[in-house]
Amino acid sequence: MICRQVPVKETHKCVRTEDENGNKMVNEYVRECKIGAGSYGKVVLYRSLVDGQHYAIKAFHKSHLLKLRVAPSETAMTDVLREVHIMKMLHHPNIVNLIEVIDDPDIDHFYMVLEYVEGKWVCEGSGPPGGIGECTARKYLRDIVSGLMYLHAHNIVHGDIKPDNLLVSGNGTVKIGDFSVSQVFEDENDELRRSPGTPVFTAPECWLTYRGRAADTWAVGVTLYCLVLGQYPFLGDTLQDTYDKIVNNPLVLPDDMTPQLKNLLEGLLCKDPIMRLTLEAVAKHTWVIGDDGSIPQYSCWCKRKSLREESNGTKDDSSITHSD
To answer: In what residue span(s) does the Protein kinase domain sit (predicted)?
Structure first.
C-alpha cells in the first residue's frame, strides 16, 4: 500500500554541470558539502534552485552497485532499488522522506533526493552516545516507536535500527533513516532469513530464521540502553564474542535505574522473541507514557483514502503495490 498523497518524483534525465561559482550541480541542485556516507555511496548536501530548500542526496555509481554481490542472487543494486521501492511507499513525521529519484539510463550515476534533517544524530559518531538522561531518551524513544509502528503496520521491517540511523531535526523530532537493509513482508508472515544489520544491535534469534518485527524491537531496546547508559548491553572483542554475549549473557542494569525503565529494558531485551515486548506494549508502557500521555496516533494517508473509498463505495486498486 502506497501511503503518500504526493508521489516521489521520478526523473530520467540528469544534467551534471557547474554554476557560475564553480559549484557542481545535478539538475537544479547545487552542491554544498559532503555530510555523510551511506551503505554504498556518499551523502551530499545540495540546495535547490527551484525552491531554495536544502536536500540530502545519496549518490551511487550503478556500475559499482552491479559488481558488488551481497547475496548469491543479489547485487548491491538490488538493495538500493529495494530501498527506493520501500521509501516510495512511506510518509510519516518520524521517517526521513524521499523526494525524488534521478536515474538517467545514459549515465552511470544514480541519485536519491531526501529530506534534509538539519540537526544531529541521536548518536554523534559511530559509537554509543554518552548517557543523555531519561527525559530526553523518553522523548526520542516515543518518536522511534511511532515511526517503527507505522513501518510495521505497512508490513515493513527496518532491519538496522541504531543511533546512527536516527536523526534529530532542529525542533527535536527523531526521524528514522537508512532503509538499505529493510524488507517488505506479506501479511503477518515476517519470517526472514537474510543476514541482519549491525551486529551489536542484532537480536539473538537473528543468526537463524527470525521474525523481523521482534528483531526491530530488540534493536530499539539496545538503542534505548545506549541512550541512557552510554554503552552497549552486549559487546565482545570479536564478532563471535559479541554474538555469544548477545545469546548467552544476562542483561545487567544499574541498581539505581528507575524501576519502570528497568522493567521496560528487560521487556525489550528479552532473549525469547515470543516473550519480548511488542511495540504496541512499549507504546503503552508507563515509562514511555511518562507525563506526556499516550504516543499520538498518526492518521496516515492510505488509511484515510481507504476510509473515503469505503464510505463512497469505491476502490482504487492503483494505490496497491505488490512486492515479490
So the answer is: 29-288
